[in-house]
Amino acid sequence: MGVDFSALRTLINRYCAGEENWVDSRTVYIGHKEPPPGADAFIQQRFPDNRVVSSKYTFWNFIPKNMFEQFRRVANFYFLIIFLVQLIIDTPTSPVTSGLPLFFVIIVTAIKQGYEDWLRHKADKAVNQCPVSVIQRGKKIKKESFRITVGDVVFVKEDETFACDLILLSSSRDDGTCFVTTASLDGESSHKTYYAVQDTKAFRTEEEVDSIHATIECEQPQPDLYKFVGRINIYMDNEAVARPLGSENVLLRGATLKNTEFIYAVAIYTGMETKMALNYQSKSQKRSAVEKSMNSYLVVYLCILISKALINTVLKYIWQADPNKDEPWYNERTEAQRQRHILIRAFTDFLAFMVLFNYIIPVSMYVTVEMQKFLGSYFIMWDDDMYDEELGEGAVVNTSDLNEELGQVEYVFTDKTGTLTENNMEFIECCVDGHVYVPDAICNGQVLSGAAAMDMIDTSPGPGGREREELFFRALCLCHTVQVKEEETVDGIKHGIHQGKSASFYISSSPDEVALVEGMKKLGFTYLRLKDGQMEILNREDEIERFELLEVLSFDSVRRRMSVIVRAASGDIFLFCKGADSSILPRVISGKVDEVKARVEHNAVEGLRTLCVAYRPLSPEQHQEVCRLLSGAKLALQDRDKRLSEAYELVEKDLILLGATAVEDRLQEQAADTIESLHKAGMKVWVLTGDKMETAAATCYASRLFRRNTQILELTTKRVEEQNLHDVLFDLSRTVLRHHGSMTRDNCSSLSNDCTDYGLIIDGATLSAVMRPPQEDLNSGSYKEIFLEICRNCSAVLCCRMAPLQKAQIVKMIKASKEHPITLAIGDGANDVSMILEAHVGIGIMGKEGRQAVRNSDYAIPKFKHLKKMLLVHGHYYYIRISELVQYFFYKNVCFIFPQFLYQFFCGFSQQPLYDTAYLTLYNISFTSLPILVYSLMEQHINMDILKKDPSLYKDVAKNSLLRWPTFIYWTVLGVYNAIVMFFGTYFLFDNTTFTSNGQMFGNWTFGTLVFTVLVFTVTFKLVLDTHYWTWINHFVIWGSLVFFVLFSLLWGGIIWPFLNYQRMYYVFMQMLSSGPAWLSIILLITASLLPDVVKKVIWRALWPTITERIQVNAGSFHVLAFLHVSGHRFSACVRCSCLLRNTRVDIYSPKQAECFIDEEKESNVTPPRPRRSLETAPEQRRLVL
Fold this sequence. Notes:
By secondary structure, the protein is an alpha+beta fold. Helix content is 42%, strand content 20%. The protein has 38 helices and 43 strands. β38 (841-845), α27 (852-856) and β39 (859-861) form a beta-alpha-beta unit. α2 crosses α4, α11 (364-381) packs antiparallel against α28 (866-903) and α28 packs antiparallel against α33 (1004-1026). The chain is elongated and about 120 Å long. Keywords: ATP-binding, Cell membrane, Endoplasmic reticulum, Endosome, Lipid transport, Magnesium, Membrane, Metal-binding, Nucleotide-binding, Phosphoprotein, Translocase, Transmembrane, Transmembrane helix, Transport. InterPro entries: ATPase_P-typ_cyto_dom_N, ATPase_P-typ_P_site, ATPase_P-typ_TM_dom_sf, ATPase_P-typ_transduc_dom_A_sf, HAD-like_sf, HAD_sf, P-type_ATPase_IV, P-type_ATPase_N. It holds the Pfam family Cation_ATPase.
């Protein structure tokens, strides 16, 4: 008797990934009903419940998980090791000195993260317990959201939000459609249409829906919001009918039902498997250049620490080699400790010295930097200049870790449509067989009244031409995905189709489609509605024409076209297709191609967006073949996109060209000024767009990316076809290198417009060839390096016909070049997400193409013009502030610990601490941390108006100039110098053993306290000298910190604290202050410590001043005019330009006139007029040359 293993083999093949034809799918049983006998075996799969968890911790794992994450940081782990060493071995300092700062940082961070996670738990609980209506046994019951399981049939009413990912079964509308807004998912506020399964759309009651017997096979959950592959098997009379399911059938969790009374749908993905939850996962962590510098400095200081400990250990044993210089008695070493092996003793002493000097590593710097970044990000969000009244939104900071990176940008990669332009389409004209039609102004539903219906600027078509003209207009009225909505007020404007006739308006996810349909309305053909599969249009004779919509071949960025198949009332079947000229014209077999192509090229040069329109009549046999191809592709679970693409290629062919359209997308306000400012700031600007070359080039000229004297270099498919890629690249390379070192945009932006520079244009196909790895049989080498060399010598680059992935490849290529420049990518659409994620800094524009770019960006701004202030002002300030913060932290810790190192030479290397335990503990926590934090939040070394007017100031901080190694070494040397002055100054003053007036001698704790007092005042006054922008907050924090230090020292040494076993600082501070010489020494040592830095700055500013320093010296209290006294008079110095003190001629005029000009400048904000009185009429005045 044989055993049939076929069923078992099928199951194994299905669930084992090793089988090549295994499809990663799931089966959902609607209403949890088993399939009828004879169908597939019923296998109940396990799916998660609908509980959404956005929190990171639970009550039980918070402490271990949070501690693990915090101690993964090198600095925290290092201090933990030091703390444990202090506990294990006998060290010169108390474990409190290392443990208290460490645990302060750990606890503060844990509280912050715990509070944030508690808020997430609270939000999760509110969502998970939301009531949902579910159909069970033909009745409607209420369930908590988290109890929904895959296969449950859900009832949703209008304005309710979907609790999980659903497949639409039926709706209250007769055609089985429903309208949904996905603003919470992608920011698109427009209503989108979703479709019910054709075989279930008639079921509209609980009993009818409960009677559905079907299963759904679909792909496993994946995060793409716009992709879904599945099919539904409906069992009728025990026979299964299969229907395709796509993204148009899926209602995503978080979306909201609109303009539909109710729907029934089945849950397919729940909880953390919903597409919304899968998109929770965070982006890859980006690290700023400043953070990398901090880590490098930390390694250097760690090496210094080890060196110090090693030197002291060696010197200690050299010192103790003399029998008369044994271990000091006050170390209280036992005989057993003295008899240990010398290596063990040496290692123990090495660890003790490491503990003694460990404060050179600033543990509090990390928490201060985090606070600075977090608090500083609010200045961007609070900036009223970056608030857009039209959108009602301001700038958004999604991550504060990259604030200072905004001040280091060298390359800006920008999208064109919706970023440089408004993405606010206006229909300009259409061309039918060479005849041009120009309607009246139409823009987003707003039609100017009192205008004629149509204005032809060419001769009228002949008798046969009128038929093709109307066919063109019908094609544009039918080939789209525009929806007709009831009258609605949007931004205070009522939209309507017919003036006084109809209360509806058009809406679509594509502004181009709305503009085209509105344009056709002005030309006499009005699209009315889609009802019961019939598209209705109103022709010129006010007759309603109906076309049955048979198929929609959706637009995608690869094909760059869309098509519809419709059946006219006469029974004729047409395929109408519209798309980019590059995707339509190669498929055309007839029509006036030359005339239309010439008009398309003309409009592209004018900067208009062009589309070509074509059609193809289909016979019934051809239509059946098309339906067979499309149905087979739509039912496929594996490689559905590929099979659909192949089917579209077979259908969209043998087209007859009808004409073309032209739509204008206006340049955004101040976009040209912003790009010019970025160029002057030393940034390279690249435009990456999917538009055709002529349209993109016209936009580049309008936005001043290319100037009239810019020599355009083309690296396009057309040129590569005429001449091979190798020769083209080398020709371009020779051209730009011939002028290498001559004037480019960076060094001629402030000179005459006659200066020549280069602009490069490359298309997507050529870029793919350039990026392709070199073949072994060619001696071409790497084309990528040649291409990069050409780009480096071009002032601007335009990349057109770019796919989204190519945009990211461009950014990645520039990031990986030998200079490793800082890159910024800015865009507004989903096609820009890849480059936004790839760049060092990603900025999203709150545009009209959804919010995918905003959600995936590091920063979001309403308009492109706001990029200017974000980089030139906020970025400049953030970098100045944090670079000072980092350098200052290392400086003050060198000042703090180097005297401790010197002190070991005078105490027999006995590991005796110089400072009291309280001072060791509170130095970085209380005495010196708050002033630098406030400085890093408030400092404005130059007025922000000057930063905006003179973009060249951005170059002063470019390429991480303030955190380079020479600057770091200067700060370190300055700290060592200050430490030497403090220690030896105090040491030599202590030579007078009768230091007090009563003859009492000072002890070692007084010595250390005096050094520490000079230290605290010196590092604080150093910050005072570096502060240019004073507010009451700065004064309060700086002077308050010094007062707090004095008061703490008085209380710490003036009271007998009961919890201390011994009090070595009792009365020490007061005794020190009672000595006149101590006061004098404090003043002299502070002055001696700060004097060299002051002298160095004075000399440097006098001999080699930067532009920033010139402005700081001359700006004074006004940002435009600074008045300096010369021979009893005053003269004005313009601080608007970079040539402030170079070859600037300035007239002398009276103080009264000066005040007049100040008032004028304040009121008009324009260049101040020259003095009204000439030198001839005012002989007492004279001219100076600065």
